[in-house]
Amino acid sequence: MPINDSQIILPNNTRKASVAHPYVMPPLTRLRIQQSFRNAKPIIGRKILKRASTLRNELKIFVNNLNNETTNKLEENIFRLVVNCVANVDFPSKVASNSFAFGEFFAQFCIFGFRPDFFSTIADAMVAECVRQDGGAQKR
Description:
InterPro entries: Globin/Proto (IPR012292). One of its GO terms (molecular function) is oxygen binding. This protein has 140 residues and is an all-alpha fold. The chain has a domain at 45-134. It contains 6 helices and no strands. The longest helix has 20 residues, at 68-87. It starts with 26 loop residues before the first helix and ends in a 6-residue tail after the last helix. 14% of the residues are buried.
């Protein structure tokens, strides 16, 4: 189900007005994020999944029980989610749609032991790997 920008609720409980607030984040922050991922390689999906597996033993068991082809698909989907979110950072509805599709993709793995609470571990690993991708090149 697609989400439009008028359905996005901002932290202060106000609805996003596309005209009044054209950007979700300051332009400098957006630029830093986009520049950090200009040269991102698909291997970041593997690194994120590997880091997530080290953070949570149940996730490690789940990943270890998958065949290589399926693991590669998971890594590819993680990479695509990060790249699509960075590319659409100014469009919350597109980020939400990409995230929803990402969740739908993982739903098929519930019969193999995937649990929805693994998403928080994957998100933590994404943040850690994204900071690592940046290499601390951006000053605060």
